[in-house]
Amino acid sequence: MRAVRIHQYGTADELHCDAMPVPEPGPGEVLVRQHFAGVNFADVYMRNGLYHGEHTYGTQVPFTLGLEGTGVIEAVGKDISHLEPGMRVGYCLARGGYADFIVVPADRVIRLPDWCADDTAAALMLQGATSHYLTHSLFRLEPGHACLIHAGAGGVGQLLIQIAKARGAFVIATVGSQAKAELARSLGADQVILYRQQDVLDQVQQITDGAGVDVVYDSVGKDTIHISLRCLKVRGTCALFGASSGPVEAITPMELAEAGSVFLTRPHLAHYRRNAEEAQWRADDLFDLLHDGRLTVAIDSRFPLEAAAEAHRRLESRASSGKILLAI
Length: 328
Prior knowledge:
The protein has helices at 41-47, 118-138, 155-166, 178-186, 200-207, 225-230, 253-258, 276-291, 308-316; strands spanning 2-6, 15-19, 29-39, 63-64, 68-76, 88-92, 101-105, 109-111, 146-149, 170-175, 191-194, 213-218, 232-240, 263-265, 299-304, 323-327. It is α/β, with parallel strands linked by helices.
């Protein structure tokens, strides 16, 4: 089979399509013949070595990239009764998704509804689960809450806007262009800030009459974290869940106090998707929103497996608007 691997940490130039043997599922595992694999910033962080040495996502080279995808079960290992060959499934947080086949632990597999296309489902696996735990578990949005969503036109940002509105929250989104501002508004954002032209903190203060927001969802990192903290209400929460502009090196405890005794958390999806029941619950919630028309999924682009490096460059350019997929 084909597998996109890296043999040393670095830029997208380090991605190579290698020939590998098709793996076999062990006990508690399934073999999935893949249709689509998702491309995420987590893949970039793993590729460039940012996660090297970390317990949750750390990986030693060489390895096959990719944490999510959709396809059909080809074979099942021992001790599995609820999954069988031919079943359409998705998964996330399994290693090796940039390949024709992948072995996935059964507790990370999601059963797909018949009406949902494979590419749409693939676009919801990791980014959808991320958006769900941020709005339902890390900080449970309710009517009356106000939230600030950075990168509102990105893959997660678009889902966050829609899910936050479905939960009754007031949504402020930051974007980089007028076209992306129009997109964010079309998804339900109540206010949109053009961060290249406007002062984000000043705009948030004006929009909230100086009160600030209850929660900031920050996937940008280095360029935004200090602003995010200052945009919060007293005792507000900042969820730093990405680093598209670079990792945050340090925050002093006094900065949290001076911002209003605020809370800062740096979560991993893996800690909010700990078993099969939690994984399926989050997915089913998302599929219900999709089926009811309260959620739409935007696919920015599809690349063939051999063009995974181009897909990474597209993602890192921050010009994409929606999900980037590898069509396998």
